[in-house]
Amino acid sequence: MNIDQLGYFEEQVLTMVAILGEDAYGNAIAEEFANQLNKTVNLSSVHVTLYRLEDKGMVKSMMGGATAVRGGRRKRIFTISSAGLNTLRNLKDSREQLWKLVPQFKISY
Amino acid sequence: MNINPPKLPLRLLHWFCPTDLVESVEGDLVEQYGLDVNLLGLRMARFRLLMNVLRFFRWGIISRNHFTMLDFRTALLLNHIKIAFRNYRRYFGYTLTNLAGLAVGLAVCFVIYSYTFQQLSYDSFHKDIDRLYRVNQTNIWSPEGGLMSSTAPPLAQEILDKMPQVDEVTRINTPGSYEVRYKNESEDLMIFREKNVFAADSNFFSFFEIPLIAGDPNKALNGTNQVVITEKTAAKYFGSGNALGKILIIGDQQLPVVVTGVAEDLPKNMHFSFDFLLSMASNPAVKNFNWSWIWTQVVTYVKLAPGTSGKKLSAQFSDVFDPQIRATFDRIGMDYDGFMKNKGNWKFALQPVQDIHLYSAEIGNRLGPVGDIKIVRILQIMAVLILIMAVINFVNLSTARANIRSKEIGVKKTMGATVYNLAGQFQTESILMTLMAAILSIPVIVLLSNLISTRIGIALSYSYVGSGGTLFIIGFILLGIGVVAGIYPSIYLTNLKPVSVMGKQHKPKDGNLGLRNVLVTTQFAISLALLSGGLLITRQLTYLTHKDLGFDRENVLILNNAEQLNDQLASFRSEVANMPGVLHASVAMDIPGSMNYEDIFMSEGSDIKLAISQIKIDPYFFPTLNLKLRSGRQFQIDNQGDVNHVIINETTARLFDWTPDEAINKKILYPDMKPDPVVIGVVKDFHFQSLYENISPLIFFHNDSPIFGDQRVVAVKYNQANAEKTISQVQSAWDRFGKQSPFEYTILDDKLNLLYDQERQLGAFVNLLSYLSIFIAILGLVGLVSYTVDRRRREIGIRKVLGASASSIFLLVNRQYFRLFVISLVLSIPFTWWAISTWLKDFAFHINISWITFAWSGIIVMSLCLFSVGLLIFRALIDSPILAIKDE
Asked: pTM higher than 0.90 for the full model?
């Protein structure tokens, strides 16, 4: 799979979906960004990215349960597809491969 | 948990967010909102919700719409348009009627607004225009006082010295007309008579926004014998060559002046316009009279400090300068209080420069003609009225034809169309109609502008339309007109009940008769009012230009600048007088229509001081203009003693408390003039000024009298037959005598008519508009009647079979309109009467408004209606009744 197909933010969102498992929906992902990466993201960007990932076949979505805090509206739960997981793994592998080639000592002059 | 998020942002979200996504998005937003309420408080949470919703308005979300909703709307709109065009085509005559009316209405509105826009834009382009004021003062030369725009030279410096609120002062002086000579490299001499010569202070170009294309604006007028000319003038003298530094010889003193600047051609919408602008120092008189507060020969402008109120400052002016003014009177030995009797206090008043063009009807403008805000307002109102008439046509015709559309409406309603869908249909039709009319109005605008520039003499400029903002506003206005025109028809038509319109027994009614009648009456009232107004203005104009003025105005040729002939003048006159086509010829200082040299005269044995117009004439003047004596005699040829004699008019005699006979041999007192001139004759009053004025006092001196006034004209009374030949003979004689002076003549009659140019323009405008309004009204009437005739074809057919006469059928169809017509005639009269009598009040001499005019306009419009409607009905009448009856 061609790794160019994922942008950096897409990759991050996809990773979040993988982390959250059965509980990945817009708000939860945005929160995860805040918790794990200490980074505030725009809810609308998360949504747009999720839909784009769905278009690319990286995630699947289904309507989940409604809760009172949502005023009775259902969540759209995203789960990572095997294609998505593969892509993430490929990305990680290629990055590690490259990392190994970097000289592992301090550069001093 | 009780979450109650604000509704508006979520509704917004629903509007743009795809349906399959909206629920989860909304859920996320609401969840976040709940958290925010706890964390940040209600206000902040609401704000963040709105912001978050707005952030969803992005391509990534919107593009996920499947456009199902939008698709439907677009399709509906396209359908509306399609149906609109089908309807237009099916009822082509109706469409044409509407289009023609609207196109004419829009064109008129546009043209008139362009004109008024031009009028209102005068002087608006000067920088700091809101701080520029003209200083007006009490008109000390009119017996009744009032304000005038001329002031005296010392005022400017005094203002600067005594008024800290004034930042800058500049003056413009009008030295009069000059003969300007220029000898080019090849020694060819050019001579032109230049009438538009001003002189101005050196800061003129920093005060007014007049860019120089050559020369330094700060130095161009900074010294003696310097002149700034306009681009056009430069081209006249120097062709395409460089003008800067060239020497022009001006005036009788042959004063050389150097061109120090060339100004861009002046914009038309400025309250003054010059060809030559001398530096103030080039006219020594201004400096010489710097002590005199009654040498009112300059116009003074001030620039106030920011935030200063012109009104408040005006009040201070009057007190500050009182001592100086009194000093002037002491110096010339005149009695200040006696002089100012009946004229009120010597006041100064600041007038915003931007108001000069339109708000100076009484004050006047020393530097050029002025407009009149009244005329601008009248025209604006008329334009709106005509547009309203066109819109009324649309409303009337669409509601009258309601039953043609009623089936369509019924079916659509049964199929589930909402009132809004239907209203949308009718709005679409009316907006489309307006837009088409706007396109059609372009040729009408071109036609009208041509007509206006050739017949009325006003060049309209549409350059302001070019800017995007204006186009946007025009588009918006068109849309507005379309919507307004469509409102009533759509309300009316959509309220029809499907059951009643589709039922078999439904007898379609012809719309709302009551309202339609009101509208038709309004239309006719407007066009009748305009027509009678136009007729009355035309009558007043005819009166002004044909009234017996007390002298012969026909066939009199005026040769200007005759003083150029110097001592040859007398022999020139006698040569002209002896030409075969010439009856009389006279040399005089001035001619009726332009006599405006006044001074103060007193009479022997009384303390009455009168401002009297002064004119110098020769013994041939009375026969040339056919003036009649009331008593005494006129000047005699070769009577040397007449140099000390004067002739006065009846008004002067009356104001000095003399009967015409008593006046003979009375002495007139004029300072510095000895011996005192003696009255030898009293001339019958004649109108030597415009008919706006009552006849003022007038005094005739002999040409050789030492009193002021060196200007001369030659008046030539010629025979109408061979007029052209005579004029060319006079010209060749002039060329022989005058050599270096250009031959310039006017016909007295034309010159007098020019006094009423503004009235002529107003009359022409009102007449033009009244014709157009009649056109629109008749268009509407024809539309209505043709529809009625159409509906009643069978009825007419049956009546004909049963033996009804043509006239009875004609009456049948038109009876209601006759009634409406009479009502509108009655309604139009008081309005026109009031408007025209207000207008006539400005004239000292005017016509009386008579019933005949209204009768005439009623007859004219009525016969036009009868003619056009008659044609329609005639068509229905000549159709064989069989065709009509078997139809169905």
From this structure: no
